[in-house]
User: Fold Histidine--tRNA ligase from Asticcacaulis taihuensis.
Amino acid sequence: MTQNNETTFRPEARSPRGFIDKRSGQIAIERRLIETVSKVYEDFGFEALQTPAFEYADALGKFLPDSDRPNVGVFAQQDDDDQWMALRYDLTAPLARFVAQNWETLPKPFRRYAFGPVWRNEKPGPGRLREFMQCDADIIGSDRPEADAEMIALAVAGYKALDVPARIRINNRKLLNGLLVSLGVTDSGQQLGVLRAIDKMDRFGPEGVALLLGAGRKDESGDYTKGAQLPDAAIQPVLDFVLAGGADTRSGVLEKLAAVLANSAEGQAGLEDLARINAAVSAMGVSEDEAIFDPGIVRGLEYYTGPVFEAEFLRELRDDKGNLVQMGSVGGGGRYDDLVARFTGQQTPATGFSFGVSRLAAALSLIDAGKRSGARGPIVIIAFSDSDMGEYFGFAAELRAAGLPAEVYLGRSGMKAQMKYADRRFSPAAVMIGEDELKSGTVTIKDLDLGRDLAMQISDNKAWREGRPGQVTLPRAEAVKHLKSIVES
Assistant:
């Protein structure tokens, strides 16, 4: 007798870091979000475009950290023709490639929207995934500030359609550029230090930011952060610039900024852009509560060439343990006039906005918590007998033909376990066609939604069993109508 000493290899069941599984609830919320926003995009005249998941690595441009190591920052592989191709890092670089490739045949300006997954080969962490969804709209070929205004109005309309409380905060790269140049700050590294310092205003306040604009700042633990090394005479004007966003109206912010930027031609040009944006968004009905000018918005200014937008989530959210959830930005965009030029050598004006699908889905899931709206299951038909499976499947087909999702329980468990299964599926109702129902031509329906609600009010188990809340027996001809009323309610 021989003995097999070989050990069977069994891989550990685990997800790669930075990648997550999504169940029906999250999928339903993301689907609703994308469908709602896509409808808004189409209402504004944007055309859908789908580009492939892979692009040639050199087409990703600035998103590729090191062309000698094309798998750093992106997920890349070498094709059979020795060219490197990579999973798209975002939806904008593929758009630039598509526009450059098809410019002669496109309507100009070209208005497109797109949605889909993107991949980044970065170190994962809380709230930072390597695969996530984006949902963008862009206008390519218009240098009008009114094109930027339309992106802002579109964003406002999208958040309204989603019933998400958000406010768009708007800045313009020309403003800070102009101010720094007028103050003699022209070194790109020093300018980047200024941007980083301004971005800390919410955390450290004006005094802390003043330190970061100057020599540096030591925190409570003793750690020292080197500052932007601005001369003392330049620090206060930068603070005045950032704090100009404290006005209640867009026109009020413009008035404050005009005084700060009086000696900057580029800053004045940026103010003119914002004035035209203000006129356009006001004409489109965008209120001061929905969009405001804020010179403290600096994220993305290294990339954008003009106006920049950031959507701020305004509602306080708590998780199922009662902890406050910091949602932060739930979308953003701006003007990027240099991207298409990588392919053509000619500057092509462009502006766009992207909804933060992952963060919005997280917010909507918290808002919808307990409502089950994102994970509603099908009507479940209880299986009592193998010999009557045909009856069950026939009724399931009848329900599907009436537009009602339905399934027959296909396990081998008893009645109690089947009802528990239906409840775990968050099914609106369970259908019972037992021996008595078959003889009498009836159907017993248990309204599970009503049962869940009533369960919160009944503490006596005996009363619960005897009352059978939400359960009715009807002639089979009336069953579909009754089930529709449950689902639609």
